[in-house]
Amino acid sequence: MSLKVTLLGTGVGIPQPGRSQPAILVENDHPLLLDCGAGTLMRLDQLGVPIDDLDRVVLTHLHLDHVSDLLALANARYLSELPGLRIFGPSGTDIWWKIIRSVYPNLEKMETSVQELKPMDAVTLAGCDIFAEEAEHSVTALAYRIECQDRILVYSGDTEPSARLAALSQGADLLIHECSFPEPFEVTNHSTPRKLGQVLRNTDVMQILLTHLYPQAQGHEEEMARDVQEITGIPVEVAHDLQMIPL
Ligand SMILES: [Zn+2]
Ligand SMILES: [Zn+2]
Q: Relative to the alpha carbon of 65, which ligand is closest?
């Protein structure tokens, strides 16, 4: 089976038509979820992907738009009498999960493992080698480079444009990078098209997908992609929910 990447949610914490909250499904020899924001379970159901094998979740950070369906997934697995989750995330994930699950006796009964990752850590999961790197966000956040077979996917999570992430992306077949607002917004902790393009300018990447769009980006999708593409020379698209990319 070849590597398949599906954008389940390309939005943010503020509701908007057509974009649920961040989550990416990576299908190699075993499915893997990157982030699990609100709407993830519904999108999985729309795709016809059962939760049976969805026991591995890699979190970029603990902001609610990236984690809120993790509880729903854990509960759905409990109700379906499936084994508990294996959760990977930045430092703080362990205590966060302990507090959350302590409120729900059914989740307490499940065997859930949490492994915290630091920048430069590597883990092998679902047949993929996953490397963590520090993102530039308002809380501790990681970006991931995922090498499966001979394919490379990089996911930024939430971040300002960062030279570290550009280095992490070298040689990637697909870079899924957040681009929260169009020009001429000035923001911190997130990316905007021109600054992102400048940072990625000399990066050797086959294809860039922009995700994590705020409602303010509505109607500006084409110019956002064009702004990044003009500076980098790399093919760029704005992602949409349920978009599938075979790698
Ligand atoms: Zn976010
Ligand atoms: Zn965030």
A: 1
DSSP code, position 16: B
Residue type, 5: V
Over residues 7-29, the pLDDT tens digits come to 999 999 999 999 999 999 999 98
DSSP state of 19: B
- State the Cα–Cα distance between residues 213 and 108, nearest whole angstrom: 35
For helices 193-200 and 221-232, angle between their N-to-C axes, nearest 10 degrees = 20
Q: Is the pLDDT of residue 123 over 90?
A: yes
pTM of the model: 0.98
Q: How far apart are the first and last CA of the chain?
A: 11
What is the CA(61)–ligand 2 centre distance, in A? 7
Q: Which residues surround ligand 2, an ion (CB under 5 A)?
A: 63, 158
Mean pLDDT of the chain: 97
Structural domains in the chain, sorted by start: 4-246 (3.60.15.10)
Nearest alpha-carbon partner for 225 in 241, 244, 207, 242: 207
Rg of the chain in Å (alpha carbons): 17
- 197 C-alpha to ligand 1 centroid (Å): 20
| Rounded Cα gap, residues 236 and 247, in angstroms | 16
Under a CB-based contact definition with an 8 Å cutoff, are residues 35 and 157 in contact? yes
66 alpha carbon – ligand 1 mean position (Å): 6
